[in-house]
Design brief:
single chain, alpha/beta, 8-stranded parallel sheet, two-stranded antiparallel ribbon
């Protein structure tokens, strides 16, 4: 496997200044800690580093509803009492609190993901990293699970401008429900999630949930039990992803690397080591397909930076050479008492039997056999600037004012009647 990849890395120093509130498990400060460790390991010398250019609120409405984005722009801790009905309607208040700078925070993490996709589209990088992104639970018009704007969906929509098929892989301990829902009825995007299932947030992601209509068999879910360890995870992740890469042949991959699947996470119940978690990253990297790598969950503050720093090294081909002894950094005291990169796992029982994992793996591989190898898609022509229209996502429409057909960037939304396209000219 060649180690020479052009890696771009998106980071804005402001991200660590946002605070969900006292006692809330989601801490954007972990992204700043990760960046500090990346810099002090010298990994920045091996990649191009960018501060993302902020996207407009309009760009967020490629997926999200106008009302919801306008609400996020408007709401503040000072005016909350005037928006009681909207807070309830958009599920903002408890898990997803209102805090100072909420909309700017959403702009920052989303801009890195969309900017990263644009860089891949332009062919200027092979791998793009945005550890601030990966907020995979947000819905079209609803916040959920600490997530407000679904940067994963918006990044995928950006990639669809240039790639016929995009694969989304999620190794967060929670099911990637917002992304799956957005693309549930199209074969242009395949979503794959490996997650804890059964009396666990968000409660979705059964193995039988595999897509609908044009998207049938293009949503893959591997539900898991407590105690998932490195060997077990590797035994299911590699064959499933191998099969998908062979049959689906995506033009680009988005990999959500939620670190709450690590051993010892404050909200998680898996038992993965850094190497077990990063083995997924290394395997996806080995296919040499344009790759956008995002963060996600992760709630033990000292462990998340360790994980994402190590995975940055893996993406740079430095996974075998990065030193276990942590370099001195601005947050060195967080990493005591051992001050090591790698952590021991716990002795918790793995409740995933070999029989269960093999049975579910076979079940998913059977679903994948139903996938059309490299699915064909319709092409809509609209003159010189015509673009491939995603099947099941959108069509070329006429501009009512000018009366001419124009090229679209097509967005996706789920409504009661099924898939609805939202074009942005």
């Amino acid at each position: 496997m060649s180690n020479s990849r052009r890696v771009s890395y998106f980071y804005d120093a402001e991200i660590g200044n946002y605070h969900y509130g006292q006692g809330h498990p989601m801490k954007p400060h972990r992204v700043r800690m990760t960046h500090n460790l990346v810099v002090n390991y010298g990994l920045y010398r091996k990649m191009e580093m960018f501060r993302p250019r902020l996207i407009s609120p309009t760009a967020m409405t490629r997926f999200h509803s106008d009302d919801y984005i306008n609400f996020l722009k408007t709401i503040t801790p000072d005016n909350m009492q005037d928006y009681v009905r909207q807070l309830q309607r958009f599920n903002v208040g408890e898990d997803c609190p209102v805090f100072d700078g909420l909309f700017e925070f959403c702009q920052l993490y989303t801009s890195g993901s969309i900017g990263g996709s644009a860089r891949l589209n332009e062919g200027r990088a092979d791998v793009v990293i945005n550890w601030a992104g990966g907020l995979h639970h947000a819905k079209k018009a609803e916040a959920s699970g600490f997530c407000y704007v679904n940067d994963c969906v918006l990044a995928i929509l950006e990639l669809l401008k240039c790639h016929q098929r995009v694969l989304y892989i999620d190794i967060d301990i929670h099911h990637g429900d917002g992304v799956e829902e957005a693309f549930y009825t199209t074969n242009r995007v395949m979503t794959v999630s490996f997650h804890k299932f059964g009396e666990y947030f968000p409660g979705t992601g059964d193995v039988l949930d595999c897509g609908y209509a044009e998207g049938k068999n293009y949503a893959i879910n591997f539900p898991l039990n407590d105690g998932m360890d490195d060997d077990s995870f590797r035994s299911i992740f590699r064959p499933v992803i191998q099969s998908i890469m062979e049959r689906y042949a995506p033009g680009a991959v988005v990999l959500q690397c939620g670190a709450d699947s690590l051993s010892g996470d404050r909200l998680g119940c898996f038992n993965l080591s850094l190497k077990g978690h990063a083995d997924c990253v290394d395997f996806v990297r080995s296919f040499n397909v344009p790759l956008l790598v995002l963060g996600g969950g992760g709630y033990t503050l000292r462990n998340v930076p360790r994980c994402w720093t190590y995975e940055t090294a893996v993406l740079l081909g430095e996974g075998d050479t990065i030193k276990d002894a942590l370099p001195y950094n601005d947050y060195f005291e967080y990493f005591g008492p051992d001050y090591r990169l790698h952590l021991p796992v716990s002795n918790m029982e793995n409740l995933n039997s070999r029989e269960y994992l093999d049975r579910t793996k076979v079940q998913l591989l059977e679903i994948l056999r139903e996938v059309e190898p490299v699915p064909g898609t319709q092409i809509s022509t609209g003159g010189v600037e015509s673009n491939m229209a995603p099947r099941g996502i959108g069509d070329i429409i006429n501009d009512s004012e000018s009366g001419i057909t124009r090229k679209l960037n097509v967005g996706v939304g789920i409504m009661a009647g099924g898939m609805v396209s939202k074009p942005t000219i």
